[in-house]
Amino acid sequence: MKDGKFLTMAFESSCDETAVAVLADGRQVLSNVISSQIDIFKNYGGVVPEIAARHHLENINEVMDRALREAGVTLKEIDLIGVTHGPGLVGALLIGIATAKAVAYAADIPLIGVHHIMGHISANFIQFPRLQPPFTALVTSGGHTNIADMQSYTCCKVIGSTRDDAVGEAYDKVARVLGLGYPGGPKIDKIAREGDPQAIHFKRIMLEKDSYDFSFSGLKTAVLNYINSAKQSGREINRADVAAGFQQAVIDVIVEKSMAAARKMDYGKLALAGGVAANSKLRAELEKACRKENIELYVPEPVLCTDNAAMIGCAAYYRYMAGERDGLDIDAYASLPL
Amino acid sequence: MEIKRIIKIKNEKETENFGRRLGESLSAGDVVAMVGDLGTGKTTLTGYIARGLGIKETVSSPTFTIIKEYNSGRLPLYHFDVYRIGDPEELFNIGADEYFDGDGVCVVEWADLVSEELPENSKYIFIEYGEKEGERIYKCTF
Prior knowledge:
- The structure holds two protein chains of two kinds.
- Chain A has two domains: 7-122 and 305-321, ATPase, nucleotide binding domain (Nucleotidyltransferase, domain 5), CATH 3.30.420.40; 133-299, Nucleotidyltransferase, domain 5, CATH 3.30.420.40.
- Chain A is 42% helix and 17% strand.
- Chain A is built from ten helices and ten strands.
- In chain A, a hairpin with a 5-residue loop joins β7 (145-150) and β8.
- Chain A starts with 6 loop residues before the first strand and ends in a 17-residue tail after the last helix.
- Chain B has a single domain, classed as Rossmann fold.
- Chain B has helices at residues 12-25, 42-52, 90-93, 96-100; strands at 5-9, 31-36, 67-70, 77-81, 105-109, 123-129, 136-140.
- In chain B, β3 (67-70) and β4 form a beta hairpin.
- The termini of chain B are close together.
- By secondary structure, chain B is an alpha/beta fold.
- At the A-B interface, α4 and α6 of A face α2 and β3 of B.
């Protein structure tokens, strides 16, 4: 406790980012440190090795120290430790978990494991201090595509997921084929503004009627087929039109399914989460659709949409307040149901 | 690497038949190494291999997490996408050798990027586009 406020420190290491955050009373961010922002990485010539757990291991103590320092608190003042325990890359998750456990044990602080998707959705509580569940949530990122029913602060039901590629992944792969580079999301978003989304029509893959699941692999293949056949017949490819057509096909499906889910749940609120929420076209189209149907749309700022530990701390706080506790035996899970 | 057979796949139904049959025949410790461009259907084929193993969950792309595990079948399936791995040696940082020697079946997408780190008896499938849309050519070393 500090100044009468409950302090949560949280760890997130499920994929590329090593992140530690400190929150006051679950929703106020005191610090939100993400490894790729730290200057020491610039010593590597800007190349941050992407995936290996080893890098999380090298960074996590430094990231934690910095999170405490920026928050202006000491470990003794921390009341709760939260940590992502899945889904993700097990080797990477383990570093966050082992560190969280060690700190929890050494300083005698309660520990809560958090589902990564629950964390993403909880970012909305940080951005919008008055937002309360229930609401419909749309999680779109490099690794996840879900529509969820956020019933309470601690109970979330996933009603739709991708059956193949995640949205962000489809963007990355199409960007790769178009020679736009990585990460694909912002690159396609940008070049698509110069293109005509109606110029090339790619099929909208809706799956079965009433299904909230997604499939983007076929769309990716359709784009590839288009490019290959253009190349074979010597036609020049208008990359902006391809990007715009692809993006429109993705967004039409996401908007239609999200709105159908929001309508069915009838909470009057739709909250976005995950890195793809930063996509300008997706936001614009969802805003339009939500306005038409009188649904409030919540979109956290980009730093809270991409992987971060503040969102994990928020989710941990609410689980703790609901009386939940985890032991020092919590483990990492590559796949973890919500 | 010797190609033992070349299979012409006309449509997804044939991918399903091939994948299911392969999945039914695999044993613990087998590594299926897939080599093929974006959009050639590596994850789709893996999904059908999973069906052949009796796995019920949806097999979605492991590009982001590098490895996904499925435990509902006759044998565990460890599904790798090593595209994002910069250096083959990084495979060991994620504990891949333990998976290769393990109790289950491994499927590795983009296997050409890490071939020197894969077991010698890995079952390679080189996937190429066929002439018509939807057609694929599978060149197998087994």
